[in-house]
């Protein structure tokens, strides 16, 4: 029986692990298939305190993991396929077929990129359709690409891509960007980036092997046109990774796990941290803060039940 299982190894889960390990709870972290979470898909993080020059997302994750390990955190690769209440104060997880029981659980499974829901998106997945410019834009050196979305992610992806590709066309469904002012200014002031406003991507077209065009629809007059492109980068938000907890925990209408201000879910001993719970801030620093809160709460909870 594990004292504490932490599901997820992004910055929220790893911060929880550092705190829990230093409290001698010997936590087991289940790493998941997208190990390291969204910071693995980003470049420079400029708004995490203590790094005046910025820090690379993957570097943050690898250091946080080493820090958690140093204090006795154990790691297990794999995805939680089932989560259930096994008895009073006992929870069971099935990880790639193996059953693991725990007295306390911190869920820090994060969120995954939202897709448009087009068949063509699947057809050309990783053959012109991508969700991580940092990872894949360098494959399109000197070529023309499209970025879909109008938030900070779309702007960040566009700015990064503009350094390596010939041109970036942002396709956004409204007439203004949702991104922060500073990101908007950088994007709109970049000569390699242009924005097609009030438009949505209707179809991704290709020659069977790779993407060659997108069909875009003007949302005001309904007209469609085709735009030549070598790749489409989707940056239209994220979906919380909470499906496995549905029916056991309370989720809101968008799938975010509901918890109180102390990261406690409705199940005693089960806590949340990071983007699987937080749809408001969604920052590395807030995810790390929630990881800390959840670990401190788990520690108090475990002390309480051991006294019973
Ligand atoms: P977001 O802020 O939710 O923006 C998603 C964008 O995609 C919106 O512009 C939205 O359009 C559009 N969109 C959503 N569904 C769509 C669909 N089906 N078809 C077409 N367009 C669609 O998501 P995000 O940009 O990933 O950012 C998430 C959070 O992380 C934000 O809080 C953001 O500030 C933060 N973030 C910060 C940084 C940074 O500080 N460096 C970098 C990345 C992200 P509408 O505008 O019409 O809704």
Task: Explain the overall architecture.
- The protein contains 7 helices and 19 strands.
- It has 308 residues and is α/β, with parallel strands linked by helices.
- The protein folds into 2 domains: 2-112 and 238-306, 3-Layer(bba) Sandwich (FAD/NAD(P)-binding domain); 115-234, FAD/NAD(P)-binding domain (3-Layer(bba) Sandwich).
- Strands 1, 2, 5, 6, 7, 8 and 19 form a 7-stranded mixed beta sheet that branches. A 5-stranded parallel beta sheet has the order 10-17-11-12-13, covered by helices on one side.
- Helix 6 links the parallel strand 12 (167-171) and strand 13.
- The longest helix is centred in the C-terminal third of the chain and has 24 residues, at 284-307.
- The protein is elongated and about 70 Å long.
- The mean pLDDT is 94.
- NADP nicotinamide-adenine-dinucleotide phosphate is lined by residues 47, 114, 116, 148-154, 156, 173-174, 178, 200, 235-238, 282.
- Residues 47, 114, 116, 148-154, 156, 173-174, 178, 200, 235-238, 282 line the site of NADP nicotinamide-adenine-dinucleotide phosphate (NAP).
């Amino acid at each position: 029986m594990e004292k504490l299982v932490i599901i997820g190894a992004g910055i929220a889960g790893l911060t929880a692990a550092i705190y829990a390990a230093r409290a001698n709870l010997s936590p087991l972290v289940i790493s998941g298939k997208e190990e390291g979470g969204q910071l693995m898909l980003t470049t420079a993080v400029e708004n995490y305190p203590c790094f005046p020059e910025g820090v690379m997302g993957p570097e943050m994750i690898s250091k946080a993991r080493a820090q958690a390990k140093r204090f006795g955190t154990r790691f297990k690769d794999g995805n939680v396929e089932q989560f259930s209440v096994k008895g009073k104060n006992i929870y069971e997880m099935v990880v790639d077929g193996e059953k693991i029981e725990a007295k306390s659980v911190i869920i820090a499974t994060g969120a995954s990129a939202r897709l448009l829901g087009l068949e063509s998106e699947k057809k050309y997945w990783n053959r012109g359709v991508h969700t991580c410019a940092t990872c894949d834009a360098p494959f399109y050196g000197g070529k023309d690409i499209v970025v879909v979305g109008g938030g900070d992610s779309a702007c960040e992806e566009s700015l990064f891509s503009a350094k390596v590709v010939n041109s970036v066309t942002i396709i956004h469904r409204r007439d203004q960007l949702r991104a922060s002012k500073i990101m908007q200014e950088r994007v709109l002031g970049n000569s390699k980036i242009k924005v097609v406003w009030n438009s949505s991507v209707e179809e991704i077209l290709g020659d069977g092997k790779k993407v060659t065009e997108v069909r875009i629809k003007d949302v005001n007059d309904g007209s469609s046109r085709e735009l030549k492109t070598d790749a489409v980068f989707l940056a239209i938000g994220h979906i919380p990774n909470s499906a496995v907890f549905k029916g056991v925990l309370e989720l809101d209408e968008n799938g975010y796990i509901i918890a109180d201000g102390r990261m406690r879910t409705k199940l005693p001993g089960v806590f949340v941290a990071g983007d699987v719970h937080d749809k408001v801030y969604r920052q590395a620093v807030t995810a790390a803060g929630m990881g800390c809160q959840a670990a401190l709460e788990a520690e108090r909870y475990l002390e309480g039940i051991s006294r019973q």
